[in-house]
């Protein structure tokens, strides 16, 4: 059987090329996702501030509520703190030379011309933590008084200040002048400003807390062994060594690792599903071209098992070669995805990849399994026909579909349509996700019943083609009508590409547009004040004292983590939240309060969206339990509920409470409302002249929804993932179209021998290509349009999809160009042979 399979592959290289390419690309995608997942577990960026520390101890980087399993955890959204007193206990651990608590807080240098040096993140630290890098003094001396600082060399150069000079630094207050007592060699990712330990603790604003504790080991002590001993006294704190130390140093590294795991896992699963779909379609097409061969084998007593075994062996040989090459190609794909994710800001630019043989081997095995599954599905029909019917079955394409296939296909279509109705009842991310999933389910259902749907559409096209283009039109229509399965095989991947591209792009734009529209309608302020790195809390008070200002409301963007029991499990998720000044928020924001009072939002209280309150079964006066963004448990009293949840998220906190649980203790913005009758130009000029460097004054219409940044990053992330999948589908489309056209060499030869000219055959194929592309575009558009219409109606109150129309035309143009070129090139190649030679070629 192996020899026969190998001989068949060698004699039909063109037929197996399509399956080879499909498996190659699918394996490359799966391998790339595996590499990204492994990188999420083992990779990161090199630590910088803790390079000399064998062990770094920080706050817990994830939340696992009581009763939750190991998988029900959520990454913190804000930098967690660790008790500074823990350093004393760690210092007593055997093998520890020293344990140093490090403070870390925003500290930006203001130049002489009033410009804030914000090109790179700039953080302040206590000088005794400089030993952890280690930072070596290039010149000068350590800060001895609260009025002295040490700058890293790069920051001193950019600020144009030397040792002994004066520099202004803004932290959680306005600019303060300091004397530069020394300069140290700096890091490449962040700028460093060192204060005396007492001054750093004051400026950090976290009494008794520290960013991290760096542990210096005695000579000869193994970091892993020391980490185990430290872990025994660290309580619930995070204890890290090696590359893991950077997850304590940089919050974005820790978040990126979790994000890579989630994205690569979901993207890899979807890529594998698409790969099975594409490989099955390609194999079915290849096997369908060999109907005469299998008919002959059945007629000479080959058993169904032997036919299936032959097809399985052929597929295994092709899949092994394609899988090995595809897994190697996956290295380049993973590197490209990493660069794309870094370019859109999803992961840090210096985030490295972890490479090992495991993802490559897993990709080969998954690709082989997908190919065998596809081969089993494709081999059922040719192996099950009776020998007496074999030759007749090969002569004419089977028109009707089985009852099971029809029930499955139309059942999936109905299920997809039902899923598309979800946005009419639910809002938020779940509505957008259900809309996209509904599109895919409908596409898969239409692919299952493709020949029936295509046959119905073609039946209406035949007279149109015949009237418009006479001979060529008649031939094109007759061919499409008689070979509905072949047309369906060409239409399906193109339809999937169009529908998937439309759903992936226009689905997120609907959610974003809905949030932005509600934010614009709900913001009653006239101006918004922002600054690079954050706004000091003093700005809101200063803006409120400007003549002509009715109210100045500080806004803090953060997140909270909720734990909701669902049966025997606990659902843990992080959701956007914001902090506002309850007594002033009403003058600048309209939350749509429907119960309680926003003015009561002070102290340990919270306001919830109506949807969240109903989900948690909470009413005014009840206690609401959750976790702040830094992982600290919260139990707050509910004082108000509101309906504008798309604009403000599900949780609104008192601004002072929200500040306590974010790393920088800074506001994100200040919303300012003008008094009625006050001169707009005068008020704006006074606000712009506030003595806080870096302040940016903009119209309040520039305000975005709380999750706007995350939603934008997610949108670009979806575009990258969709681009890769659509690229794979484009290869599949070209692959399928070339195969379906190339197998018709004898048909073209017969047409030319009975008097049809080469030009007429070419025109016939162009019309068939036009019909194929047209059917795919119309079906793909309708399949995506129905869920998108319902999604926009549910979120925005209008059925018109949000987003530029040019993207739609671009997708359609790309699909049309792909289909026309693939069929045109294959037709041109097939027509090169002389008819008398081509008519003798076997099918």
From TrEMBL:
Keywords: Cell membrane, Membrane, Transmembrane, Transmembrane helix. Belongs to the ABC-4 integral membrane protein family. InterPro entries: ABC3_permease_C (IPR003838), Macrolide_Exporter_MacB (IPR050250). It is found in: Cell membrane. PANTHER family: ABC TRANSPORTER PERMEASE YTRF, MEMBRANE COMPONENT OF TRANSPORTER-RELATED. It holds the Pfam family FtsX. Residues 266-385, 720-830 form the ABC3 transporter permease C-terminal domain. Its main location: membrane. This is ABC transporter permease. The chain crosses the membrane at residues 258-285, 315-337, 357-378, 406-426, 438-466, 715-738, 769-795, 807-831. The keyword Flavoprotein does not apply. It is a multi-pass membrane protein. GO terms for cellular component: plasma membrane. GO terms for molecular function: transmembrane transporter activity. It comes from the Bacteria.
